[in-house]
Amino acid sequence: MKLDQYGNEIGWIPEIGTSGDIPLYQALVQAIQDDINKGILMRGYKMPPQRVLANQLGINHGTVTRAYKICEEKGLVKGIVGKGTFIAASPGLPISLLTDHKDTDLISLGMAIPLYECNPFIETLIKQVLDSMDYGLTMTYCPPEGHIKHRYVAANWLIKYKMKVEAENIIITSGTQNALSIILMTLFEKGDRIVVDEYTYTGLISLAAYMKVILVPVFGDEEGMDIEELKSTCKREQPKGIYIMSDYQNPTTVTLSVERRKALAKVIEDNNLLLMEDATFSFSLEKKIKPISAYVPQQSLFIMGTSKAISPAFRISYIAAPSSLVEKLSHGLNNIIWMASPYTSEIVSLLQSTGLYERIEEVKIQILKVRNKRFDEIMTGYHVLPAPTSCYRFIQLPGSYDDVELEYLALEKGVQILSANRFYVGSKPEKPTIRLAVSAPNTLEELETALNIIKELLDNYRKRKSFYPVL
Ligand SMILES: Cc1ncc(COP(=O)(O)O)c(C=O)c1O
After folding, report:
1. What pLDDT shows up at residue 233?
2. Which of 47, 323, 348, 373 is most buried, judging by how many CB atoms fall within 10 Å of its CB?
3. Ligand 1 within 6 A of CB of 246
């Protein structure tokens, strides 16, 4: 290992252009980005301290600080208080991996596409309710939190998910990502901390980075977040909130037991946390379990959306909030989107009040059951949590595997998968893991084809030594 004149170890020195066309800090950002793309800087790599790099390059300390800050905003690096700056878990991976490739021959096991094969069936149900639409109501502005009629129907419908809430406590948003944005913008400030599972929803990770809200990972086991670890994290980090997916956690598929829910509720109460419980995938759980929010209704925001349960086209999400927060959230919603579309809200409301919503859910659960059974048959021999009706599955691989490399190798074979690195909060996950969305392929046959390709890839996998140049 090379040492600088002060005895600091130098593991990496960027080559920054000296043409003077762009400011030095931008050139340094570019150099970091380039070295990530080339595989020279790997995820989890500890970047040189700013002072050391500044000395090495003969540039100002402030220039390096500025460049690191921009890299952090771009999601390329991650600063961990007291530990340093690390290359982020999934830097530089093409965002196109997350897009819908239905116009190509690629089979997607990537994004959790909610069973498009159900769309023709959903279409017939939508046609049934269109005649009952209250156009007078839906073609005008409404209060930011939504029409009371829609909130009332939603409150009744939420009972099915074991969530008891008054209509006045429901706020209608344009999807769960929108609900989370409203919550973070309204109730959190820059520098506030939110506790999350070590693997969590990518949309929250990027939103928190955007809002400069700090996500604090808490380790867990195959039953979810560890209670003792959570308690000590609360003591150490003084978080303001906690974000949990109690049913089919994305990406791990863990469904919290009743005992774990109660224990989490107790910690939430004791530490005065605000719970954000994301129930996006609760629809696919065959036997519904009482959410944590039902134990701590005064400290929770239960968020349930329709884009996976029905279709992204009818994208509504309900926040069940305590009375103390309804006004603040409605005000925030008003500032951000004014209101969710009353037209979409009316369609969803009609599906809920006529029982058609449940029929869609039942059909999806049955399809997911068949798809997951095939998954279990094909993926024998790998460490996968049981998740009989989940939209995706989480595979923990032996340490000799490289999950990011597997993403690329799978793409080469025409299948899109996700390295669970993308969901990781922290510098580098301990084990390689991948998430395969069983709900994404258009048909069962397509799913089987894709799974067989992945099974063969995993069975015959040898880490390519040349994939990442050794530092
Ligand atoms: C856990 C989780 N929450 C929220 C969302 C986004 O939902 P919506 O489409 O309602 O914004 C997703 C999308 O995949 C998700 O996985």
Report:
1. 97
2. 348
3. no
Class for the domain spanning 2-87: mainly alpha
Domain borders along the chain are: 2-87, 95-118+358-459, 134-355
Domain 95-118+358-459 falls under CATH 3.40.50.980: no
- In 306-411, the DSSP E strands lie at 317-320, 383-384, 392-396
Query: Using CA atoms, how far apart are residues 48 and 22, in angstroms rounded to an integer?
Result: 23
Centre of ligand 1 from the C-alpha of residue 149, in Å: 25
The finding on whether 433 has its CB within 6 A of some atom of ligand 1 is no
Structure tokens at 470: 């050794």
Query: For 72-96, how does the pLDDT look when each residue is reduced to its tens digit (9 = 90+)?
Result: 877 788 777 677 888 876 654 554 4
58-72, 118-132, 226-240: least confidently modelled range: 58-72
Cβ–Cβ contacts within 10 Å for residue 26, how many? 16
46 secondary structure, DSSP code: B
The reported pLDDT for the residue numbered 41 is 86
Per-residue pLDDT band for 471 (boundaries 50, 70, 90) equals very low
- Interval between CA 176 and ligand 1 midpoint (Å): 6
Cα–Cα dist 215/229, whole Å:
15
DSSP annotation string for 76-122: SEEEETTTEEEE-SSTT--GGGGS--TTSSPEE-SS----GGGHHHH
The answer, yes or no, to whether residue 273 has pLDDT greater than 70, is: yes
Residue 46: predicted pLDDT: 84
Is CATH 3.90.330.10 correct for 134-355? no
DSSP secondary structure letters along 165-207: --GGGEEEESSHHHHHHHHHHHH--TT-EEEEESB--HHHHHH
Q: Under a CB-based contact definition with an 8 Å cutoff, are residues 416 and 108 in contact? A: yes
In tens, the pLDDT along 117-144 reads 999 999 999 999 999 999 999 999 999 9
| Average pLDDT rounded to a whole number, residues 218-225 | 92
199: β partners: 424
> Residue 300 gets which letter from DSSP?
E
pLDDT at 105: 78
- Cβ of residue 280 lying under 6 Å from some atom of ligand 1: yes
For ligand 1, whether the C-beta of 422 sits within 6 Å is no
